[in-house]
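2.7 Reproducibility. Because tokenized structures are sensitive to small changes in the input, we list the exact sequence used for COBRA-like protein, including any N-terminal residues retained from the expression construct. No trimming or masking was applied before prediction.
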Amino acid sequence: MEHTMLPAIGSVFPRGVFAALLLMLLFSFSTFTSIEAYDPLDPTGNITIKWDVISWTPDGYVAVVTMYNFQQYRHIQAPGWSLGWTWAKKEVIWNMMGAQTTEQGDCSKFKAGIPHCCKKDPTVVDLLPGTPYNQQIANCCKGGVLNSWGQDPSNAVSSFQISVGSAGTTNKTVKMPKNFTLKAPGPGYTCGPAKVVKPTVFITNDKRRTTQAMMTWNITCTYSQFLAQKAPSCCVSLSSFYNDTVVNCPTCTCGCRNKTEPGSCVDPNSPHLASVVSASGKTANTPLVQCTSHMCPIRVHWHVKLNYKEYWRVKITITNFNYRMNYSQWNLVVQHPNLDNITQLFSFNYKSLNPYEGLNDTSMLWGVKFYNDFLSSAGSLGNVQSEILLRKDKSTFTFDKGWAFPRRIYFNGDNCVMPPPDAYPWLPNASSKLVFSLLSTVIATLASLLILLNQS
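Resulting structure tokens (single pass, no recycling of outputs):
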């Protein structure tokens, strides 16, 4: 059979042209950062902000702004979200319910009444739980904490009311704000422009009448882990009953201990541990982690525990190494081909995720309320664990070539770093071959002895 030889690259492109093309290709990959916001396990996940103009005022309008977290497993933790935008004209905020701006700005030109905020680019934050009822509206006042849609849809919505002045008073004169930003609480979300959509329809409490907004526009924000943080936030370690090897998280997964800034990690055996942790503060977004080889705030350990005739058993342990964070309402997303045959789950909640039709290999796990839904900071209480019993599919099940280990693990929506595949615990194939070889030798020897006995 003849093979067609491809010409060398240098014979097709001159060296200088090839180098230029290569640089252009690399530049194009580096500039298209928006594709990183796509999550293959949650392809339609986003945060949608709906701005409903519900009534007109003499110099503007009253609107209800609602934030929907349509992400299946990524939520917003304390200290919560902050939403910003730039006004299209010279609008001001006369008053708000359910939220407030972080700054008032310069309102010196107003004599009769002072607006709530006069900044061109206001930043809005949620009010805290316990806010007086006369300052609340529905779905407000959660301190900016927003659960994921897949885990707790009833708490995946946040709203506030805003009265806008110095704006248009009809749907033809009102201008939509622009340059929306969402921090949750740090960077990571990119928001698109506001788009006019079909007005929202509201149903009255007695469900006998419907009303609709004067105007409605939507803003869609998507998340990118690469924008949110420079280094990974979690890693995965592996072990199994059939191999004594424990595969730890790769060294320097989330940073290198000898290269980090002084005070960025704490030795758990230090006699001054308590004073160092208390002095560092609990509200800082930068992790203060326990000094480890991987330097990750979170480690997920997957242990293949037992093998039965019809089933196999896995133990999952999540350990918090971050002294600055108590993870409440945490969740874990695991991708493995046998997750379509989960038989029993101990001490975790479970939900199957089906991002694509006909594919059922992804599950979301989270703690049982008041039992282990709260993952405390680094220390003796800084871990939760559970076991999963899975039924074997005899056509696909094997312990060979790392099949029993997960393909991908997310913690709170962030992709965790897996060990390299060649480091996975392996089946003791060599020992089984040795046993077979010794057995063959014994059989051959016995056969030879029988032949000699027969000959004699």
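Residues 231-430 form a domain with the Immunoglobulin-like fold (CATH 2.60.40.290).
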